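Convert to structure. Protein one:
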Amino acid sequence: MTDTAVGAPAERREARLKVSGTARYAAEHALPGRLYARPVPATVPRGRVTSVDASAALALPGVVTVLSHDNAPRLGESNDPTLAVLQDARVPHRGWCVALVVAETLEAARAGAAAVRVTYAEEPYDVTLTEDHPEVYVPEKANGGYPAVREHGDPEGEFASAAVRVDATYRVPPLHNHPMEPHASTAQWDDDRLTVYTSSQGTSVVRMVLAGLFGLPQEQISVVAEHVGGGFGSKGTPRPDVVLAAMASRATGRPVTLAYPRRFLPSSVGHRAPTVQRVRLAAGADGRLTALLHESTTHSSRIKEFVEQAAVPARVMYGAPGHRTGHRVVRLDVPTPSWMRAPGEAPGMYALESAMDELACALGMDPVELRVVNEPESEPDNGKPFSSRHVVDCLREGARRFGWAERDPRPGTRRQGPLLLGTGVAAATYPVLVQPSTARAHARPDGTFLVEINATDIGTGARTVLAQVAADALGVPLERVTTEVGCSDLPYAALAGGSSGTASWGWAVHEACARLAEQLGVRTGPLPPEGISVEADTSGAADADSPYSRHAFGAHFAEVAVDTVTGEVRVRRLLGVYAAGRILNARTARSQFVGAMTMGLGMALTEDSTVDPAFGDFVQSDLASYHVPVNADVPDIEAHWIEEDDSHLNPMGSKGIGEIGIVGTAAAIANAVHHATGTRLRDLPLTPDKVLEALTGPR
């Protein structure tokens, strides 16, 4: 038996391909005769197309065709109306694709799109989210299938009679995923067989959807996503790029590549919906919560309901005799929101953990100790025991590493010239999600092994970690195992989303390799020239109901410097400590934690998007105006974890780690800003104009 491969800081197997530029992404498959497509977005917030004049575009050199609702191939039914592109004259929101120019070159496609003339019959529209909107309603479910409202005890009565109370409203603006690789697809038809290279978090789902839209058996479609340049949720299900590329290829009989321009992404591929969250906390003098009310209002589009589940994490974190969590939504003439890294948990825990900090201040209590005092014995909402819960351990270890004990609790007392210094803390949680998957393990006569599974490596190191899982299950050195992922022709696998990828795929890989090892252990004589294969399907096991509440947890600590002259907030230190089951690869895990924390810093300080009420469009539509953090914004960032043995998860004992790192970061930073200044800001991001106004106004 070899030393264990799981847990080792193994290097990414695709790293050299990426840094050398030889890894091919969706738009880089130069098929013979390839054409290029460019969408024409709607320029009105709501209405109908009355005419599409493509004559000027078709007269340009290199333009092959222009598709619109008048001549585009007809699509079959889909349960996702955002994919019903070029099927009718409606315009549900600004940016909706109303035409597609297909040309010999990228330049010709761009010029052709600019030459298309579209006229509209405009209709009244509404793009503004308000808490008292006349059309606000309580949905049946929030994203993820969670009940929209949950209530226990008498929350209003408990709140009214409490000794100490906090009643605050927090706002998070629309946020955009903006992966490095934009949404792109290359499609090719060969008679009735369709091959698609696409940037997606799950090619099995893409194949299933395309089969329905184009009336094909799934066996006649191959979807490839060998390398994906990030997604953060926006590539979790098919987006218009893959449908439009396939339509254009069918119409022209040639391969077609469509890469969405970055400025088109905010209105085309989903976004984190804005939330207005009212949190009310009540406690006794000892800090124990007696009431917790967390109510969130958000927006969705008129063509598809998506409700950001921002109040759901409050059902897990803290208990109280009176407990209410609820969601409301307004359907507006806006693009359809969708998943963005840690949907629900990221904005919801910002509000909840900010309110906990406010309660600690009202009580005169250390914010770490307030969280420790309110540590529940079981999940407050459903009463299930936790499979493992080490929030207190994360808080204690984080406090030790951060030097929390030396903190002066008084706000606004630390200065360095014009700078005010402060520190903050927040807890974090994210659910353990596991989906059924299938894997095949193959033993070769030369003593090497191949593992095949349609997992998607979106930059997380999935190839490497799955090889580590396989090596341990087989009892062989890591270098004897290769993995093949990223193609729908491989055994089915769940998509890479909800921090469920490794837990789902690794379970199937472990089962297939364990069975193969068992067969090899009793086998005598050499293997046949073709080797032997074993397949495992975790259906019925991975998706079985669990008697436990299964979650990852963490604690975030932040130190900030606030410039009293400019209002600029600079994060000096970020520290995250996590309890996320068994860590399968120390190197890639730390990368995931640090990346998520950096994204949380952007949520706190720089990332901001607004819907222009006059034009119905996102104002910040590219990376020149939508500011994401860079290396200079995170001078000192650390990620650590505690050893956690949880036997109620999967054979590896692992929890997802891709999203837990973003969940508490924004709250920790905002709480640090309050500690530095003595002023509480509740609307993200904490940009210099907001901070300066708060510093110069009444406290």
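Protein two, convert as well:
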Amino acid sequence: MATFLYRLGRFSFRRRALVAAVWAAVLVALGLGALTLSGQLSNSVTIPGTESQRAIDQLTEKFPQANAGGATARVIIEAPAGTTVTDAKGKAAVEALAGRLKTAPKVAAVVDPFQARSISPDQRVALAQVSYGAKAYELTDEDRQALLDTADAARAAGFTVEFGGDAVQGVPATGATEGLGVAVAAVVLVITFGSLLAAGIPLLTALIGVGTGMAGIFLASGFLELNSNTPILALMIGLAVGIDYALFIVSRYRHELGIGRDPEEAAGRAAGTAGSAVVFAGLTVIIALAGLTVIGIPFLGQMGVAAAVTVAIAVLIALTLLPAILGFAGSRVAGGRIRLRRKPVETTHGERWARFVGRHRIPVLLVALAGMAVVALPALSMQLGLPNDSTAAPESTQRKAYEIASRSFGEGSNGPLLVVVDVSQTADRQAALGQAAADIQKLPDVAAVTPPRVNQAGDTALLTVIPKSGPSSTQTEDLVAAIRAESGKLDAKLAVTGQTAANIDVSEKLSDAMLPYLALIVGLAFVLLMLVFRSVVVPLKATIGFLGSVAATFGAVVAVFQWGWLTDLLGVSSTGPIMSMLPILLIGVLFGLAMDYQVFLVTRMREEHVHGAEPQEAMVTGFRHGARVVVAAALIMISVFAGFVLAESSLIQSIGFALAFGVLVDAFVVRMTLVPAVMSLLGRGAWWLPKWLDRVLPDVDVEGEKLTKQLNDAPGDDGRELVGASR
């Protein structure tokens, strides 16, 4: 493979105008397609096969008037101090608001607070329920604004009006603040290369790759229902790996220029050596992300595939467009006017650190492992859930509506449960409905059960159950399970749905899928790393180190987003249960990124080992060559991910923080500390591989050893004979 990439790098360098034109055409074509054919992104988080989804399907078939699966809004109207919503002025304001709600775009039904008796005990607050004929993701910004505008008259009269529910939630978007991470990455690149030109090339190729990937995602949204977080995850991962992969190849290109290669030869060798590591590092990320498709959760699978495709584009750009751009820049990439050091030093910081770790490997191992264990402790109390109005920003109308409703009606009013009662096989349907409502009312944590709504056929009814506890509480989870258990005790069949029940089902499904998914990606990547390093011990060590990074990251996420530590410093506006999708998403993404650093750092150690260096010296020399670039790459990834902590969406904030912290721990504690300590401790045993397995495994030559030997043996040491022979 190294030989193929060498030829590809030289071809792209020579035919740089053609390669650049092809990528420009691809970007323009996808961009035009995205502008003309893109569709609406979805906020819905559903999983086919769950009871809540089956209940929605049943209602859609037998009770379409219930608008199951459609968007909903809860409208809170609070009277001014000293007045009530039941006096003449208050009643007129509530009825007028209900009338305006009925005329809002796509609204199917409005439940009047007086008819539903949803008036608070002190008669100061009324709660109106709005049902839409369209799903939440089908609502446009104009539809949501029209809903909010219905409150203008009541607010002008002195009433407080706030809105909750999924109908109010817009599609999360990135802003200028997230670009701060890219700015920090640019500074890191300038410090690393000491050249504005060399620093600008990785940024340019990464932005082209992300632009291509994002355009493809928005184009696909016109034909597929994609989750609104899909492009954001792709943007995060695409930027980070795009910059990193280009950084590794540009660094090798500058090294080859520095030892006297001509630019074309340097580009070929950089693509054949560092490019091989980029391919395998990219494959680990792609495997981890694409693996999300096999766990049976459609929206996560979509996010994984979109991000995996973006990573694949980053790899392709690093292997083709990057050498082409290097062709335009030529040897100027090696120079620079920015001088950050007065004179070169004989011993680098990386080498000094590696020798220190090698001398004190046991204490270093113990301290690093103990530190990770302490940080991981909060993960033992992790509580999973999905976002609701309680986790919205404090100044948002959703959060204000949640707080007023909780104060006036109890927290359970923010998470009503819809119970579908199937009496089609029951002789006395009316009695069965009454018995179902009575039995549910007797269950713990039930505040109220509304009278049943029956379809025209009379075989399906809908009960609304108001819990006493909030939608994210364990008591509400227990109540959903208890209602479902009642189905076996009655003549009627019961099914629980609604946003709260759906969130509980999704969280449970995600939790159940975590361990199988972890086993899948770890198994596949273990085989891949065994191919790369031709060792059983190194992949095992890499995997164990990754598990430590994940545990520590989970602990930090719980401490910040569940316990509320450092929220003011990090700008986190609300705390609560950890997003259900975060752990499994973090496992997939962080595993791929962690293996990046494993590949880039340890391949150089293996290269020294293959060339006959003693184990300790191979570790130190490999670390000296790889540490500076790996540190720069890690800082870039951390900067890009940390920029997303400034986003408005709590999910995006938590993903950005988790990935930034995970890369920090994995790069600096695991790869830069534990790896050299363990490699020094194991010595030659680190490269142990059974002889029978050595014969079976193909030699992928990721270090480019065979390529280097062929090129060095060729006349003139410029590789032209090798290239000519390939034509």
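The CA atoms of residues 526 and 539 lie 6 Å apart. The chain is about 60% helix and 5% strand.
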